[in-house]
Every structure is written in structure tokens, then in C-alpha cells.
Amino acid sequence: MIVGLLSRAVLMSTPLLYGSIAEVYAERSGMMVTAIEGIFLIGAWAGFTGSYLTGSLLIGLIWAILGGLLLSALYGWITVFLRQHQVVTGTALNILAVGICAFFQRVIFGVPTTPLTIKPLPQLAVPLLADIPWIGTILFRQNILTYALYLLLPVSIFILYRTSLGLTIRSTGENPEAVDVAGISVVKVRFLTVLLAGIMGGIAGSFYSIGYLGMFADNIIGGRGWIAFAICFLGNWNPKGALIGTVVFGLAEALAIYMQSLGGQSFFPNELFIALPYLLTIILTISRRSYNVPAKLGEPYVKEN
């Protein structure tokens, strides 16, 4: 039971870590990507639709990336270039994403009498490593999207803290005037980090439709984009903190799924476990006493003449 629970926790942590790492990069540059919920949803829909229509999970993943990229580009254009309010713009785009997915789902598939399904990404056992007791089952019997994170996480930490690119991104969120004086375009840096958030958010969303459930529903994301957004705050804008946060939330969601599978055998109502990840978000946010907030987070940059 414990091994199975931890293995599922790693699985359910995967999309949250994609989203939270992307949010860390964007917010370090000063951009709150509040359209993350919509990006997740577009990624889930595009990933499923591409996979269902073509029969290829790879094409579905590419569609998911493109969907997330397009929505993030729209968000970046409005907030970076037009300098509009980031929270208001993100909220509007989240609502727009719901309408777009519902509309095109109806246009393309009509109203099917039975749910449309695909075969999700398979679990791949890593030779030798998968045979290690406990650890092998937990870490090395996952799908390809989870394995990609094993490389992506250390690379993201290295780039952010050990390269000139990472220094530029962090400086853009702390002192954009200094970045501008150095001859680097603040607008370009911020827009590119928003696009990165779109790419990774699209992958995160596609995890739910083609990497786990093998289907699409209007409520498939169910606020998990906002959880990834919150993990960025709770992790203090650090990929390492994001990792800890996603494991905690992944474990909470895995526990919720396990308790639901017990049906009426649990003393507590199923609704309590369904709400557990969201209750945990509220509790941890309230209990956190200090944040290392980027100085210019959420503030549009206006170049002085």
C-alpha cells in the first residue's frame, strides 16, 4: 500500500512540477502568469484532441505545447507589450480557455453518447533500476513525462542560479532598470519566460488527458493550475522549494484517490479527501510567515526616456 501510494504521489506530482517550475521562471522575471489554469486546460484539450484524431500521443503532446504556447503568447502580448493588469488579464483568459475548449470539443466531436477515450502514455520500467526494492517501483516505473522531469529539474536549477541567463532572469524581476542599462531588453526577457510557462503548462495539462486519464472533460484540470501557481509562492520562487511543494501536494492527491477507491469503507466522507489538496493549499498559504518575493513582481516595466 505505501509503495503504491508513493508511486502514485510521484505520478500526480508530475504536472504540478512542470507548472510550478515554469511559474518560478516567469515570476523571477516579474511576470505572474495568472493564465496558468487556462494554459493547463488548453494543453489537456489540445493533447487529447491531437492524439484522438491522429492516433499518435506524440502529435497530441505537440498540439498541447502549441496550445499552451498560443495562449501564453496572447497573455504575454497583453501584459508585457500592452502593459495591462496581469491578474485581470489572466482571469479573463482562463474564462476564455474554458469557452474555447467547450466550443471546439462540441464542433469536432459533437455530443458523443459514450466518453471518448484514448490509451494513455504507458508506464516504462527502467532496466535494472526498476528492480530496486521500493525505490524502483516508486521512481522508475513511471511514464516518459515523469522521467523528463528527472533531467529538467536539475537543469532548471543550474540555469537559474549558475548561468548568466539565470542571472538576467532574476535581475529582471528584481531590478529591471539595471538590466535595461546593461543593454538587455526587459520586455524580451519577460515575454520569453511567459512563453516558457506556456510550453511547460501545455505539457502539464496534457498529462491529465493523455498521460493519466486517457480522456478529456471540461473539469479535467479542476484548479490544479492554481495549485501549481500557489506552489511557486510556497516554494519561495525556487525550483527546489517547488519540488518539495509538488511532492506534498502529489501525496495529498494520491491519498485522496486511494481513499475514494475504498468507497464507503472510510470513516470520513469522500468529499473531504477530494478537497484535501485545496484545503492544504489554503492552510500552507496562511501559515507561511515570510516570502522572498521578487521586487518587481506583477509590475509592468516602462522604459524611461
User: How many H/I helical runs?
Assistant: 13
Q: What's the structural domain tally?
A: 1
Question: Can you give the helix content as a percent range?
Answer: over 70%
Q: Supply the CATH class.
A: Mainly Alpha
Largest sheet: 2 strands, antiparallel
* Structural class computed from helices and strand pairing: mainly alpha
Give Rg in angstroms. 20 Å
Please, could you describe this protein's structure?
70% of the residues lie in helices and 1% in strands. By secondary structure, it is mainly α. The chain has a single domain (2-287), classed as ABC transporter involved in vitamin B12 uptake, BtuC, CATH 1.10.3470.10. Helix 11 runs antiparallel to helix 13 (276-287). The longest helix is centred in the middle third of the chain and has 28 residues, at 186-213. The model has no long low-confidence stretch (mean pLDDT 92).
